[in-house]
Structures are given as C-alpha cells and as structure tokens.
Design brief:
Number of helices: 6
CATH superfamily of the largest domain: Hypothetical protein ph0010, domain 1
CATH class of the largest domain: Alpha Beta
Helix content: 25-40%
CATH topology of the largest domain: Glycoprotein, Type 4 Pilin
Number of strands: 8
Order of helices and strands: HHEEHEEHEEHHEE
Distance between the termini: 26 Å
Shape: globular
C-alpha cells in the first residue's frame, strides 16, 4: 500500500494538479469536483498535508493538516479549498487570480516530540532543509513547514524563534521547559509557474 515513503514524482504531479482543479471548480461555482476513483484509491492512506498558494508578491494562502487524521485525498481537497478561501491572513482568492498563482503541496510525516535534557540540545536535534517544526505551549501552537527556513535563510535557532512567533509566543519560548517542540518531515511538490511544470522541491 502507498504511504509517505513511496510517493513518486508522478504522485506529486497528480496531487498538485488535483489541488488546482479542486480550487478552480470551487471558486468558479462553489461546488467540489468528484475526484477520480484512481486518485482516491491511490491516496487512501492517512497523512498530514498542506497546500500553499503563492503569487508574484509572495504567499497568498496556506492551510493544512499537520496530523494524519484524514485520508490524504480528503485532506488535500479540504486543505486546497481552505488555503484559497479561509486563510485569515488574506482575503479569499478570486477565480480570475488563478492564472497568476502557483500551487504547492507538502505531504507530511507524523510529528514527533523532541526530547532533550536542556533547551540548547534542540539545535542539534533539528535540521534546516529536512525538518518542519511545531511549538506548543499551553493553548498556543505554531507550525512552520520545512521549506520556510530554507526560503528565508534561517539557521536552526532562528527557525525555532520564528516558530514561536507563529504560535503567538515570545521568540525565546523554545527555551521554556513547559514548551513542547515537535518535528516532522515533508515532501514538497510545486508548480514552477502558474499552470506550469510540476517539480519535486529539493530543500
């Protein structure tokens, strides 16, 4: 059975194309497409997934599911529509914007809590270009995907600081003994340009 470890470049192509089709149909008439049986069969395993939309100004929307609570084809469909219409940082995407937006799909491994004896050990337990991070403290939680620190040129400490900020916490809260730090890995597939060739991103 297919899982995170054997996702092919063709699978990545299908995931990104389907994310675009789902959003296009939803923005056009408010309905969801009926996914092909071959697609649903191929991605009937539980996985976290994020869908990211970018335009020439930068990020246009990003929503996803960090935990493998849904079958991937369901999670992809929901995340794609939500990235386009429900990201609270942006106004909803309009149908006529789609030709200027690139689609990106990140399939995730399950998050694992990093166990350390002292906070400084986190720096050697995470790796920029491989790991995504989740910081939790009380009711606060923030997540950054593996590609984010690469795009901004952050080191491991800066990555931790920005993930704390994403959670609404002070930057140094990764050093707080009551904070929980989790890491996960991701496979990233994206359009090189709107409606263009789809590539597997090397982080």
């Amino acid at each position: 059975m297919k899982n995170y470890n054997n996702i092919s470049e063709k699978d990545g192509h299908d995931l990104v194309k389907t994310a675009r089709l789902v959003v296009t149909k939803f923005l056009k008439d408010g309905t969801k497409i009926k996914l092909a049986k071959e697609f649903t069969n191929n991605f009937s395993f539980k996985s976290g997934v994020f869908v990211t939309l970018n335009n020439n100004q930068g990020l246009r929307g990003c929503i996803g599911y960090p935990l493998p609570d849904k079958l991937l084809f369901n999670a992809l469909e929901d995340a794609a529509v939500s990235a386009a219409t429900k990201d609270p940082r942006f106004v909803p995407v309009k149908y006529n914007e789609l030709d200027s937006i690139t689609f990106e799909v990140t399939v995730l491994t399950s998050p694992k809590t990093i166990i350390v004896n002292k906070p400084e050990e986190y720096l050697s337990q995470i790796k920029v270009g491989r790991d995504g991070l989740i910081v939790k403290h009380g009711f606060y939680s923030g997540l950054l995907l593996p590609q984010v620190p690469v795009e901004y040129g952050w080191n491991e400490e800066e990555f931790l600081e920005h993930t704390c900020e994403k959670a609404g916490l002070p930057r140094n809260y990764w050093k707080n003994s009551e904070s929980e730090i989790q890491k996960f890995e991701g496979i990233v597939f994206k359009e090189e340009k709107p409606n263009g060739p789809i590539i597997k991103e090397v982080l």
